[in-house]
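Need a sequence for this fold. Nothing fancy.
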């Protein structure tokens, strides 16, 4: 059990304490760089998408304009239709904190097999999908892996789960955009997700930015040719 004062492990500087592991966030700063205190906030990460705000609500109305529309009509969400299983709420059950192999499709009334996930994610099929979520500061890009010709359902869920399963970097946790309360929410999401010491030592991951909304709900058309990833609260 981690107490309220426990801090998620952050990998930037070696720890001298056996009670504060330091392996959670990818090393992005060379050791020869000028010393900066490990918990000193820095600038907004350049990898974050424009207009992202940690808190949703009225502040999201005043976000900056996004990049111009994707130029290729074959990848534009406005010109594509989603596979039906992606359009309907809760047609797919998947905890995005876990492996994509745990996916369930209740309408099948049986376990999901690989052939179920080989169908195109869109109609007509596309070779590229860019996803965003209001709670995530990054885009998720999806490319065809299974057949190399178009994005399948399997490609989509593999890309989402593998991307969200990556550790965050030091600057994703300590920056001017996140306040103490924001970091506390991330820490709580990390604590609730982790079931054992090994998971805790693996640190804060991108999926923890979703906080309590980690269950897949579906996709809808988004701005600038992208797709918006929708999630819902997890089970108690």
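Here you go.
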């Amino acid at each position: 059990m981690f107490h309220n004062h426990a801090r998620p492990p952050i990998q930037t500087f070696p720890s001298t304490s056996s009670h504060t592991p330091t392996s959670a966030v990818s090393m992005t700063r060379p050791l020869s760089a000028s010393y900066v205190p490990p918990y000193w906030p820095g600038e907004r990460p350049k990898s974050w998408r424009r207009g992202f705000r940690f808190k949703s609500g009225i502040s999201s109305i005043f976000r900056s304009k996004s990049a111009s529309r994707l130029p290729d009509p074959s990848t534009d969400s406005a010109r594509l239709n989603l596979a039906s299983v992606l359009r309907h709420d809760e047609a797919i059950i998947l905890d995005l904190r876990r492996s994509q192999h745990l996916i369930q499709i209740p309408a099948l009334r049986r376990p999901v097999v690989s052939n179920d996930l080989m169908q195109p994610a869109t109609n007509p099929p596309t070779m590229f999908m860019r996803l965003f979520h209001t709670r995530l500061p990054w885009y998720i890009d999806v490319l065809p892996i299974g057949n190399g010709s178009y994005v399948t359902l399997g490609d989509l869920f593999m890309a989402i789960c593998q991307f969200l399963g990556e550790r965050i970097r030091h600057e994703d946790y300590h920056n001017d955009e996140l306040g103490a309360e924001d970091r506390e929410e991330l820490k709580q999401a990390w604590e609730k997700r982790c079931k054992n010491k090994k998971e805790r030592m693996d640190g804060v991951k991108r999926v923890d930015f979703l906080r309590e909304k980690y269950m897949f709900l579906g996709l809808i058309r988004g701005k600038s040719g992208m797709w918006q990833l929708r999630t819902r609260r997890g089970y108690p």
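For context: The longest strand covers residues 215-221.
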